């Protein structure tokens, strides 16, 4: 698989993409958070990057890292964009899949201690 | 006797008288001739004197008026001869020759000074431009590397300053006859305008309206960016900080117009005429005549417009009271959108398909997870490797003894050679191209991660156990 040709780099700078904001409106987004487009929202008035995010996510859920990769934008910039789209109701985000429940470390330690005492 | 005596006296006297008369007459004639000659000589002297005075005055006029006018260049109109009587004479022609020689010498000196100034500035700006571009690249790299909003905030400020700095250097280099610098791929017109917006101080006040879906050809991207940036810079600089600058795009029959309206102070007639002169100036521009402090903006736009074939006018008033700048891009500089680069979405779809081809599917349980079933169906593909049934069975490990408590002691299980080989064969079989590429590209990794995420998501949907927290 050949990597796709990158978008013309450095023409539109990051501060124009986010209109000067670096802090996303929510800090719940992770790089593996899944985002999904809400269908039927008006696309008018969206900047080209936001529209591209919408079009990308319309095909199914994507992780934030993937969106950033396809748009060739820095991850932190992508987070700002996606937070805005979540605020405007264009996108729904799901938290990353939680890790499997591991047994309590203390319990394991007790078992180990018990075993050591026995053996 | 008396008569004899009188006769004797009479004749000599008569002769003398006649002689005297004749002499007097001749004398009188000579005197008259001389007087006449004297008069003509005097007249000639007087006319010569007048002539000399005229020439002296003309010389003074040359030194005091005509040559200084030439020295001052175009700021004072060229002076002619003071006295029209000399116009046809050889003297007048000589005077004109002197002035022409002087004009030639001045022009030659000006051109030489201009060229050397331009060459020096161009060389200096080239290194500055290279450094600015280098810095921009490292800023971009840092933005990619760090995932902290605080770092991003700082990087944005540095990036913003660097972009303006690069634009200044670029503008000066262009004025000095250099190329605008970076070669770019054909880009959407809207991105070109936003690129211009990136390079000015008050970029947040610029509002770009929707426009036609067209691309600017590769050759013209950077020049148009630079020209629009100069116009936007003028617009934001000469208007109140709380007003906005509107950019509207209007498709025309043989091109597209970019209209930039500001609500600023506008320009008076003198400024407009100066701006029009600079915009139409073209390549042969004197960088020493840009004023103090030098005003590059319109001159740069004029050079770029002449070189790349677009046109700019600033002589209309905007409906908001400021200046309306109109940049017309002819069809020759535009291409229809899409020919420039494959759209992002198509690439993403391609990757999704490719990622799913890579991954063996355990069950063809296709469930619609989104509105479009065609796209959702492959998204439900399970991205886990197929497992052989034997994998689930825990192989027997040899018991090596018993503990004091009676529990059996087992040795750590070691995979035998054939087990290892079998496992290798199993993993190699369904994924033959896995071994060919030991290093995955980031895109591949990203698409695999996405496939994994989609798989788990569909799995959760199947189990009807809503673990994920939905954000609204």
From TrEMBL, chain A:
<dbReference type="Pfam" id="PF05331">
    <property type="entry name" value="DUF742"/>
</dbReference>
<protein>
    <recommendedName>
        <fullName>DUF742 domain-containing protein</fullName>
    </recommendedName>
</protein>
<dbReference type="InterPro" id="IPR007995">
    <property type="entry name" value="DUF742"/>
</dbReference>
TrEMBL record, chain B:
<protein>
    <recommendedName>
        <fullName>histidine kinase</fullName>
        <ecNumber>2.7.13.3</ecNumber>
    </recommendedName>
</protein>
<dbReference type="InterPro" id="IPR003594">
    <property type="entry name" value="HATPase_dom"/>
</dbReference>
<dbReference type="GO" id="GO:0000160">
    <property type="term" value="P:phosphorelay signal transduction system"/>
</dbReference>
<dbReference type="GO" id="GO:0005886">
    <property type="term" value="C:plasma membrane"/>
</dbReference>
<feature type="region of interest" description="Disordered">
    <location>
        <begin position="374"/>
        <end position="472"/>
    </location>
</feature>
<keyword id="KW-0597">Phosphoprotein</keyword>
<keyword id="KW-0808">Transferase</keyword>
<keyword id="KW-0418">Kinase</keyword>
<feature type="domain" description="Histidine kinase/HSP90-like ATPase">
    <location>
        <begin position="224"/>
        <end position="331"/>
    </location>
</feature>
<dbReference type="InterPro" id="IPR036890">
    <property type="entry name" value="HATPase_C_sf"/>
</dbReference>
<dbReference type="GO" id="GO:0004673">
    <property type="term" value="F:protein histidine kinase activity"/>
</dbReference>
<dbReference type="Pfam" id="PF02518">
    <property type="entry name" value="HATPase_c"/>
</dbReference>
<dbReference type="InterPro" id="IPR050428">
    <property type="entry name" value="TCS_sensor_his_kinase"/>
</dbReference>
């Amino acid at each position: 698989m050949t990597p796709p040709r990158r978008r013309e780099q450095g023409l539109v700078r990051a501060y124009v993409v986010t209109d000067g904001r670096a802090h996303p409106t929510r800090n719940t987004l992770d790089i593996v958070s899944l985002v999904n487009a809400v269908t039927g929202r008006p696309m008018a008035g969206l900047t080209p990057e936001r529209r591209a995010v919408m079009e990308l996510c319309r095909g199914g859920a994507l992780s934030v890292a993937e969106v950033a990769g396809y748009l060739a934008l820095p991850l932190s910039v992508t987070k700002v964009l996606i937070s805005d789209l979540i605020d405007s109701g264009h996108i729904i985000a799901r938290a990353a899949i939680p890790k499997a429940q591991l047994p309590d470390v203390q319990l394991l330690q007790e078992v180990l201690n018990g075993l050591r005492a026995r053996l | 006797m008396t008569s004899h005596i009188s006769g004797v006296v009479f004749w000599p006297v008569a002769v003398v008288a006649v002689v005297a008369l004749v002499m007097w007459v001749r004398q009188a004639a000579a005197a008259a001739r001389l007087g006449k000659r004297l008069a003509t000589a005097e007249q000639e002297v007087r006319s010569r004197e007048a002539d000399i005075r005229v020439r002296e005055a003309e010389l003074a006029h040359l030194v005091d008026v005509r040559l200084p006018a030439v020295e001052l260049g175009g700021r004072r109109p060229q002076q002619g001869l003071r006295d029209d009587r000399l116009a046809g004479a050889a003297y007048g022609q000589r005077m004109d020759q002197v002035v022409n020689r002087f004009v030639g010498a001045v022009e030659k000196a000006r051109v030489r000074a201009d060229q050397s100034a331009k060459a020096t500035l161009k060389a200096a700006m080239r290194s500055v431009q290279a450094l600015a571009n280098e810095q921009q690249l490292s800023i971009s790299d840092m933005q990619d590397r760090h995932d902290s909003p605080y770092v991003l905030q700082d990087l944005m400020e540095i990036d913003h300053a660097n972009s303006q700095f690069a634009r200044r250097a670029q503008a000066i280099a262009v004025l000095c006859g250099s190329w605008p610098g970076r070669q770019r791929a054909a880009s959407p017109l809207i991105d070109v305008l936003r690129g211009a917006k990136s390079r000015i101080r008050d970029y947040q006040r610029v509002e770009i309206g929707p426009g036609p879906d067209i691309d600017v050809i590769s050759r013209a991207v950077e020049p148009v960016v630079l020209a629009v940036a100069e116009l936007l810079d003028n617009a934001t600089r000469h208007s109140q900080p709380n007003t906005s600058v509107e950019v509207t795009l209007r498709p025309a029959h043989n091109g597209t117009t970019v209209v930039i309206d500001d609500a600023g102070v506008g320009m008076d007639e003198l400024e407009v005429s100066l701006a029009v002169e600079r915009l139409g100036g073209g390549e042969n521009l004197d960088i020493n005549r840009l004023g103090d402090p030098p005003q590059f903006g319109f001159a740069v736009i004029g050079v770029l417009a002449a070189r790349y074939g677009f046109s700019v006018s600033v002589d209309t008033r905007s409906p908001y009271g400021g200046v309306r700048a109109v940049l017309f891009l002819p069809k020759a500089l535009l291409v229809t959108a899409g020919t420039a680069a494959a759209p992002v979405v198509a690439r993403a779809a391609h990757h999704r398909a490719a990622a799913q081809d890579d991954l063996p599917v355990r069950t063809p349980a296709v469930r619609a997870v989104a509105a479009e079933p065609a796209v959702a169906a492959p998204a439900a593909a399970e991205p886990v490797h197929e497992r052989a049934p034997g994998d689930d069975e825990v192989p027997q490990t040899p018991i090596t003894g018993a503990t004091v408590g009676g529990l059996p002691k087992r040795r750590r299980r070691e995979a035998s050679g054939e087990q290892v080989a079998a496992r290798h064969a199993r993993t190699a079989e369904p994924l033959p191209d896995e071994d060919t590429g030991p290093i995955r590209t980031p895109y591949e990794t990203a698409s695999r991660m996405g496939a994994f995420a989609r798989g788990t998501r569909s799995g959760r949907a199947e189990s009807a156990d809503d673990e994920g927290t939905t954000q609204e």
